[in-house]
TrEMBL record:
<feature type="site" description="Positions MEP for the nucleophilic attack">
    <location>
        <position position="234"/>
    </location>
</feature>
<comment type="similarity">
    <text>Belongs to the short-chain dehydrogenases/reductases (SDR) family.</text>
</comment>
<dbReference type="Pfam" id="PF01128">
    <property type="entry name" value="IspD"/>
</dbReference>
<dbReference type="InterPro" id="IPR001228">
    <property type="entry name" value="IspD"/>
</dbReference>
<dbReference type="InterPro" id="IPR002347">
    <property type="entry name" value="SDR_fam"/>
</dbReference>
<feature type="region of interest" description="Disordered">
    <location>
        <begin position="480"/>
        <end position="504"/>
    </location>
</feature>
<dbReference type="InterPro" id="IPR012115">
    <property type="entry name" value="CDP-ribitol_syn"/>
</dbReference>
<dbReference type="Pfam" id="PF00106">
    <property type="entry name" value="adh_short"/>
</dbReference>
<keyword id="KW-0808">Transferase</keyword>
<feature type="site" description="Transition state stabilizer">
    <location>
        <position position="43"/>
    </location>
</feature>
<dbReference type="InterPro" id="IPR029044">
    <property type="entry name" value="Nucleotide-diphossugar_trans"/>
</dbReference>
<feature type="site" description="Transition state stabilizer">
    <location>
        <position position="36"/>
    </location>
</feature>
<dbReference type="InterPro" id="IPR034683">
    <property type="entry name" value="IspD/TarI"/>
</dbReference>
<dbReference type="GO" id="GO:0016779">
    <property type="term" value="F:nucleotidyltransferase activity"/>
</dbReference>
<feature type="site" description="Positions MEP for the nucleophilic attack">
    <location>
        <position position="175"/>
    </location>
</feature>
<protein>
    <recommendedName>
        <fullName>2-C-methyl-D-erythritol 4-phosphate cytidylyltransferase</fullName>
        <ecNumber>2.7.7.60</ecNumber>
    </recommendedName>
</protein>
<keyword id="KW-0548">Nucleotidyltransferase</keyword>
Amino acid sequence: MIQDHSPALGATPASPALWRPSRTVAVILAGGTGTRLGLGIPKQLLKIAGKPIIEHTLAIFEAAPEIDEIIVLMATGHVPDAQQIVDKAGFRKVTKVIEGGDTRNATTRIALDAVGEGDVNILFHDAVRPLVSGRIVRECVNALWSYSAVDVAIPSADTIIQVDENDCITDIPVRSALRRGQTPQAFRSPTIREAYRIAEGDPNFAATDDCGVVLRYLPGTPIKVIDGSDENIKVTHPVDVHLADKLFQLAAAQAPRLTDHRSYSEELIGRTIVVFGGSYGIGHELTELARRYGAQVFPFSRSTTGTHVERAGDVEAALKTAFEATGRIDHVVVTAGILERGALAEMDEETMDRLLQVNFVGPVTIARQALPYLQQTKGQLLLYTSSSYTRGRARYALYSATKAALVNLTQALADEWADVGVRVNCINPERTATPMRTRAFGEEPEHTLLAAEAVAQSSLDVLISDLTGQVIDVRRAPGEATQAVPAQTPRVADETNVASATVG
């Protein structure tokens, strides 16, 4: 259990006794049935961003160093479904997947029994809040060193009104004192146990909120409120599904960066990387960088090797060349892409076909051909999108559409290939200095563009990470004037061998 023992600034200890919990347990409340979503399955089993909602939620607590154990309370009849998700994802902290109760207070009682006796930190979290952050989890646990009950909330942006049975306003509370509650809610185990023990004597007791139980039955107990986040939404209504999916698209996954050259060499020596579009731009920089760290890299492109990514025969031959030379393929990278500007109605069929073939059919063809090789090494397919995938842009509609398609392809293949251990990710760089961008937009101030080397470095970090199904943003730090290296000029007018850069 890794915790920061320093109390929050201005905190008042809940009791003079030193709190020494034996462990910290996250209880994931997954008892919802999905009736408000109109589903035939519990909403926590609905897939968002390629994974069941509950899997996203569990992943946050699995990764949180403050959490020692996870217990899942699942909707009646769906415990095997949740257990299968846990087993497939390899969540090591999950110790129990059990059936919840008919009501929230019954479920909490089951959870307390499952946690067992002893002094324990307990965090209750809604399974259908998959965008909770590690920061929120950490602050909840740290607050328990000073308080015995902790809630998570955000300020209300809307005016809250109180109405009577006729829907007429009776009061308008001062908004500055109001908060919108979220989860997790965290407790020292003796506090939540005592609150529920007292509540059992109340014939009118009904709980929908565990902090509310403490507030009502242990009124002298301070309940610390820490800041939640607008992204920590609860998937309850149909619109929430779309919002959560879009938030996952916009959330930037982070690949850990190693500390030195030796660490990268230890990871990459002996690996084989195939780069389609490896002659210029990001593909070229990634090729050179990986080679410096000891990887065997095979770049292919239309201009240097005559490889057309949309042709299955060309892709098959390229992969075979790399495999016969090294006996393995660990990573396949697809940076090939073209950008043609112009109104869709004015674009000729040949241009449209070339753009669709190279930008979408090519990656699909490569994915199909690469899978048998990547299965052998439990490797990774890495694709590239553009910031335009989040919103189609005028005068490059097909480019935007193909980049959005690659995001969906990434998430779908990550799900399809999880059983065979093959990872799939997608890099989303901001505007980058590449020959393709120069060709489309002309010369631009260097300080406004990201260097291709920076994207290559982030790409390498993703390749040696355990990420899958993620869209990884590559951005300059706010206010940072990154010096972009001038893009290399292709020797021929062949844009399909350069990396696809974002078009902001």
